[in-house]
Design brief:
The protein is 73% helix and 0% strand. The chain is mainly alpha-helical.
Length: 203
């Protein structure tokens, strides 16, 4: 008979993912053992298998959970905003705040999909493209005066993510620039750049 699921099964399953994020970010995926994750959780190694069947399953569950959560938060923030500029502010603030709130989870999300198998990578990629496409649509909305080519929309979207995706690596919350100011700097640099481009540069 299969072992019944506890009432807090999903909570414990997510706790394991958070613990795994700490260990993966600290030691790397290959160097992290299931024993390390279990110890970080305060449970026995055998208990892990009740929630995740392998280390790969833990990594996939962690990345899928984090990218889905991030996509949902971005969608909610953008859809609650008004003008394209306000939507851009909302998306940037959401990303910056989330990247700084859970840096270990973001480190795993951005650097460890290479350890996933092909099927898992494909699943994650579909969700990632949802966030990228959100920015692509925003870039076009920011320049309604010109029909920007798809290649240039994608290039500008990826340049934007180049500014945001790694701030958790170098940014120090204890420094003189707070998260809100950092978001504002990213917004201003990007908006000034795209608004300063001539139409022929965008087509």
């Amino acid at each position: 008979m299969a072992r019944p699921k506890a009432l807090d099964y999903e909570v414990r399953k997510q706790d394991i993912l958070r613990a795994a994020a700490v260990m993966f970010a600290k030691k790397g995926y290959n160097e992290t053992l299931l024993e390390d994750i279990a110890e970080q959780c305060g449970i026995g190694k055998s208990s892990l298998y009740h929630y995740h069947r392998s280390k790969h399953a833990i990594l996939y569950g962690l990345i899928k959970w984090k990218i889905e959560d991030l996509a949902w938060k971005v969608d909610a923030a953008v859809e609650a905003a008004g003008t394209p500029e306000e939507q851009f502010h909302a998306m940037t603030a959401t990303l910056v705040n989330e990247y700084l709130r859970v840096p270990d989870e973001i480190t795993v999300l951005l650097t460890m999909p290479r350890h996933l198998n092909a099927a898992a990578k494909s699943s994650i990629s579909q969700i990632q493209h949802r966030i990228i496409n959100r920015m692509v649509l925003l870039v076009q909305a920011l320049r309604p005066d010109v029909e920007v080519t798809r290649k240039k929309l994608t290039a500008m979207a990826m340049l934007y993510f180049g500014m945001t995706n790694w701030i958790h690596v170098w940014y120090k919350p204890s420094g003189s620039i707070n998260a809100s100011e950092l978001s504002g700097m990213i917004v201003r640099i990007f908006l000034d750049g795209i608004n300063g481009m001539d139409p022929e540069q965008l087509t």
